Task: structure prediction
Amino acid sequence: MESNLQTRVLHNKLTPELPHHLDISRQELAFDWTEVDIQQIFRMLVARMTAKSFTGHPACRNEEWLKLSIIFSIDLFATSFTLRMFPPWMHPIVAPINPARWRLKRNIDKAKTILEPLMEQHKEVVRRRAAGEEVEEEDSLLNWMMDNGTAQETEVLDLVTRQCFLTIASIHTTSMALANLIFDLTANPQYFQPLREEIEEVETTMGKLGTVDAIGCKEYLPKLEKLDSAFVESQRFSPPILLSANRVALQPITLKDGTHIPMGTRLACANVDILNDTLENPVAYDALRWYRKRHETGQLNKYCAGQTEKHNLHFGYGNQACPGRHFAVGEIKLVMMRLLSEFEFKFPDGKGRPKNFYADEKIFPDPRAKLMMRKRRIPCDKCGRTD
Result:
């Protein structure tokens, strides 16, 4: 009210020296590293991608469903860990007063309000098709379960609960694998360039994924052999679980060598040690280890992410192997393609690769860990500038 200095500076300083001050502003635009909670970003990305296939639209954009699908696993494991602190005879007493178990019940009730309308929509589509109408409908696992389940399995509460349980194995394990992979690559930045070059080479040969009608994930993702190798190597250091093929002896067993296994004994394989004992220099992270091994041995269909074999048990083995592993690997590749192509990463100043945490045989990355990221600098073909 007493002066127009703020106006005079615009007229007399900023505008006459406009190019100079825009250059000053541009310098700050180039300094746009942002610290992010990459694990939360991955959880939400994977939750959306998974929901798109599992339940379809609009659930994949429903914030309440996405949050529910993320928190359900946390509450379930919290319930499990609490009960394991008490002998089995006390479980009926402890379970009803466990807050995490209350949250599970509330979330299943919420899920029912979200998914039941989608189930009714599918029933209407089925009725109209039976009447001879041609009706288009989005493909989803929920619809398939309704069409192929028994009468009991397709009861609303039963099917909703099954959808919640599907989120347990499909969201956190995949998002943690993504976090560990980006942490490992950031700790070993020499691998960023070969992975980006592979993506660019595939895009040059086949076009960008989604832009050519005849080319989809089936043809595209197997071409990313180096990215596949980087994930297998990352999973070697940070598998979702230290022990695979968990079993319980339902009766006493005596093996051929005389080893006696009493009834009730828990059995498992130390999958980390089994794999590492077969490798040269297992303490080093080598993102291209499995890529080289495939080409050096000529076994191009071996050592792939999601492929089970007797030395690599991180996804299980045989008919008990993780049934959703190939979907998870595909999601990981899709996310990493986008991130590597468009962004750069580094750790915050003074920080390095976050340490993993352990809870019994389970492994998960430090939930407090952060990452710095910014839009990738790509040199201009004409002037060479990257800003």
User: Anything to note?
Assistant: The first helix runs from residue 5 to 14.
